Amino acid sequence: MIGGSASDPKFQLGTVGSMQTKLLEGIKVLDLSEGIAGPFCAKLLADLGADTVKVERPDQGDMSRSLGPFPDDQPDIEKSASFFYFNTGKRSIVLDLDSDSGKATLIQLIRQYDVIIASDTDEGLRERGLGFEEIREWNPTAILTTVTGFGSFGPLSAYESSHLITCAVGGWAQLCGVPEREPLQSGGAITQTLTGAYAAAATLLATFGRSQHAGGEHIDVSAQEAAICGAQIPSLIYEYSGIVAERYSSVGSGAGPCYMLPTREAYIGLNALTRQQRHMLCKFIGREDIAKDPNYEGLSWVRPDERLEDLRAIFGEALKDKTAEELFHEAQKWRVPFGLVPSLEELFHLPPHVERNFFRTVTHPVCGAVKIPGVPFKSTTTEIEITRAPLLGEHTQEILAELTDFKSTQDEPPTNTNPLPLKGMRVVDLSMFFAGPVTAQICADAGAEVIKVESVQRIDGWRGSGTVTDAGVESWEASPYFNWVNRNKRDVTLDLTDSRGVAAVKTLVRDADMLIENYTPRVMENFGLSYETLRKINPRLIMISLSGFGSDVSWRDYVAFGMSTEQMSGVCHLTGYADEEPLFTGMTGGDLFSGVMGAVDLIAALIQREQTGLGQHINFSQIEACNMYLGDAMAGWSLAQLDPKRIGNAHPAYVLQGIFPCIDGGWIAIGCRTDSELATLGELMGVSSEIHDHVSTWTCKQDKKQLMHTLQSAGVPAGAVLNGPDLLSDEHLAARGAFLAQDRPGLGVKHYPNQPYRFRCAEPQPNERAPLLGEHAEEVLTKLVGLSSDEIVELVIDDVVGTVPMAAR
Predict the structure, then answer these.
(1) Whole-number Å distance between alpha carbons of 577 and 177
(2) Which of 260, 308, 261 is nearest to 589 (CA)?
(3) Under the phi-then-psi rule, with left for phi > 0, alpha for psi from -120 to 50, and beta for the rest, what region is 472?
(4) Domain-embedded: residue 504
(5) Is residue 448 very low, low, confident or very high in pLDDT (cuts 50, 70, 90)?
(6) The domain boundary residue, chosen from 686, 707, 724
(7) Domain range enclosing 664
């Protein structure tokens, strides 16, 4: 169980005072989904305390029971590592939903459950008499979450999907790989688990909203749009600079740039995310001349250049005689965020994981003791217990018995539009770069008032990423990434090394519901803004601290960024061409994964506060959060001692899967799950044998988008590899409102990825552009902090408040 640590008394239960309820005490979830994304959503809710019932088909149950991996490679529906991980904390009931009795029982369940999660579109559910309108008749306050590849509406909503296909149509495959080879899927099934995490965040938002307004909801989640949020780069870089980003993920994004290089022992990740880190990196390896050489200025993977390979050779030569472990710790002393690239087995022994007891040993009646990831946080009020996945139909009689005395007292379905879920909530956002701002973005889009705090001494570092230097505006206002992740927020600059800046934050906290920060742990303490201090001001405050490794470990003050958390979570270990070196995924690393999981845990804490009145501190670890997205692979190692390492575009259970060339430099992802789908592909190709050998010859004469439609119409799962212009002009995405148009001073109208979910019954979400530096300082300091105009002028004179960075003066 998680909740206390001998090394950090702050996180021993009882020091703040608690009622020891589960975060999601009293929430009842009905999991009708199969596979990965939907079950992962339901698993996250179950692990946080929701009473979660999984409805399974007779005989074989959830499809993931047949996916494995299995011990000794012997299939057994009770020994699948995939099912084991994605279904912890649930009870299982077997129902034949094609029978009248099975459907009648399901209706009884729906009448008394709060949340229904399905891996079918609403149209597909309607065809079975289980659509949202029917559910509302049985239970007017029910929340239905549909989690599918392309969403429940739009021209492609009926198309089949998979991790590979989502990588293709979501822009990831466009970025992953090297120029001379085919595009790649990212390691694991992380587009699917990311979709599940987004679905969990949205479901919890709707659950909290229902506690305020009593309205039911249909949440429609698209894996394609989740992947677009994860990738970001193709559409944003294209709109801001006109560059069609290509795959070059042997190099990561950053000012350094970033590499993963072999050392005397294992790989090490070099991650210079800022200009300052690049200079420190060069000094660290004894090559300050590189930092001073104008020939190496402005290098980026989005513009492939032989100088990138020159740098790779230079860095590799400097590091070859040391071990990865030595380099990692030495670099941290210099505040350079190197990253280890551990295997699955090594991840179980990573010191922060061991010190926080992150991996839970779960005992199963068939599998025995299995270690799997727990949750990525410790709480001052709550213990989390991870319980095993159920046997098929294990709880059928128990669940049926619970239905005996239930009588519906529901009213007619409400006709009014629901307010946004977090309307009336206030969030103080002290976070920078990406992980914390993602958590805050989810809150802002859900209606919360989010106040972002920066300083002119240290502006948000994300303002300097991917900036357009010739846009005619200040560089710190021209970052596509900052402008995406900080929409719907207000911005105030406050120097937190000045007592007046700290006092202003404390005043904001007094009436705030949540505070988000992602500094290393020492920083908030140095500011005088520790949780112990802030809870005395506001006992109901929920504070989440998204540090790289957690605040109660020996690595607590180590720096971590998206590239390093991607490396240290196992993602890079699993990403790459078969049996070749590890690669970056091509996106912005682990930050978004951490931010979405942070939102899940933050909103769960808000739901608990509704029951108990208690605030809390969430001590969050980004590398733990990122590893959770690979939990099935971790279970695969623990249960079956399988580490697939890098397998390119293959799938262990599909009869054919790959990405193949098309005309005009295009690519198509194809995944045949069964012999029947493979035979259909052969018919379309005009061949009946050795189909694998002929696919590339056939596809290279076809247009990628037309071929996707042809294959999907015939029942063969496929997806075109889409680039930036493809995504922005896509009719399906346009029909779903997947991009938000925002007009920014000096930049004009740009299109930014929307959240990958839609609330059917809620009022429209806000769509305000990201704030300029210090844009709302006067408004915030006057109305919320209570300062006079003269006091604000004094703060401006003393550079406690401002609108121009000190470095730019």
Answers:
(1) 8
(2) 260
(3) left
(4) yes
(5) very high
(6) 724
(7) 654-724
The tens digit of pLDDT for each residue in 752-769 reads 999 999 999 999 999 999
Number of other residues whose CB lies within 10 A of the CB of residue 478: 22
CA–CA separation, 722 and 172 (whole Å): 9
Q: What is the pTM of this model?
A: 0.95
The verdict on 616 and 659 lying in the same domain is: no
Q: CA 251: distance to chain centroid?
A: 22
715-747: per-residue pLDDT in tens?
A: 999 999 999 999 999 999 999 999 999 999 989
- Which residue, 670, 636, 642, 635, is CA-closest to 656? 670
Give the torsion through C-alpha atoms of 682, 686, 692, 695, to 10 deg. Answer: -110
- What Rg do the C-alpha atoms of the chain give, in angstroms? 25
Residue 147 within a domain: no
- What distance in Å separates the CA atoms of residue 131 and residue 760, rounded to the nearest whole number? 13
Q: Is residue 374 part of a domain?
A: no
How many domains does the structure of the chain reveal?
A: 2
Q: Residue 312 domain-assigned?
A: no
**C-alpha distance across the termini of the chain, in Å:** 51
Provide the edge-to-edge strand list for the sheet that holds 51-56. 90-94, 51-56, 28-31, 115-118, 143-148, 217-222, 757-759
CA distances 200 to 35, 48, 369, 621, 653, Å, are 15, 11, 27, 18, 27
- Contact status, residue 151 vs residue 145, Cβ threshold 8 Å: no
Query: Same structural domain for residues 619 and 664?
Result: no
Q: Is the dihedral of CA 636, 638, 639, 642 positive or negative?
A: positive
CB 107 within 8 A of CB 116: no
Q: Are residues 445 and 532 in the same domain?
A: yes
Q: Residue 466 is part of a domain; what is its CATH number?
A: 3.40.50.10540
Is the domain of 478 the same as that of 542?
yes
486 and 610 housed in the same domain: yes
The answer for residues whose C-beta is within 8 angstroms of residue 373's C-beta and 6 or more apart is 85, 358, 359, 360, 624, 627, 628, 631, 634
pLDDT digits (tens, 9 = 90+) for 115-146: 999 999 999 999 999 999 999 999 999 999 99
> In the chain, helix, strand, coil percent, each to 5?
40, 15, 45
